[in-house]
């Protein structure tokens, strides 16, 4: 079983299904922690529709879809905030595909994309209850930093310098397609 990672339109069927799975999981997690209930279905539909991911479209963004053995299983998005800074977002792997190395590959592919867009650093935000995400980012060289936005659910902000060396060419051309 192997991972392949390719750029896809944010509204492709695979990307849309993975966005729904991601949003459902993180929303349910928040509501269960804070209110002891799952996300209201109507609210879920409104939020998914209100945030389709258009900011991840070229030329200033990119959505990567990871497939495990050919089946869509994860995503990572990147968008330029300014000429030197990209934001990493929508890093997600389906629960049944976790533990198979997909998240580090998706983040690495997003870093390559960010560099190709001209970014010298990547920033991201996450919540306190998403301890797995925070551990992943720390393991991949991201450092916790001061807030770079005022998102209502952001509790932790991370940053990674990408440097100005030439963009490394990954072994798999799939990372650049």
UniProtKB/TrEMBL annotation:
Keywords from the named record: Acyltransferase, Transferase
Pfam family name, one: Acetyltransf_1
EC code(s) of this entry: 2.3.-.-
PROSITE patterns, sorted: GNAT
GO molecular function: acyltransferase activity
KW ATP-binding (keyword) present: no
Domain N-acetyltransferase: 17-163
Enzyme class: transferase
Protein name: GNAT family N-acetyltransferase
């Amino acid at each position: 079983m192997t991972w392949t990672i390719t750029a896809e339109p944010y509204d492709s069927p695979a990307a849309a299904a993975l966005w729904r799975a991601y949003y459902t999981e993180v929303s349910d997690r928040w509501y269960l922690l804070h209110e002891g209930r799952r996300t209201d279905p109507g609210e879920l539909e409104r939020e998914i529709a209100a945030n389709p991911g258009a900011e991840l479209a070229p030329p200033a963004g990119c959505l990567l879809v990871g497939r495990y053995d050919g089946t869509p299983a994860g995503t990572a998005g990147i968008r330029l905030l300014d000429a030197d800074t990209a934001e990493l977002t929508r890093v997600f792997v389906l629960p049944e595909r976790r533990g198979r190395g997909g998240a580090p590959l998706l983040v690495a592919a997003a870093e390559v994309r960010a560099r190709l867009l001209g970014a010298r650093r990547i920033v991201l935000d996450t919540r306190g209850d998403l301890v797995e995400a925070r551990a992943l980012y720390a393991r991949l060289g991201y450092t916790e930093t001061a807030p770079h936005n005022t998102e209502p659910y952001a509790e932790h902000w991370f940053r990674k310098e990408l440097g100005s060396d030439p963009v490394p060419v990954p072994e798999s051309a799939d990372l650049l397609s």
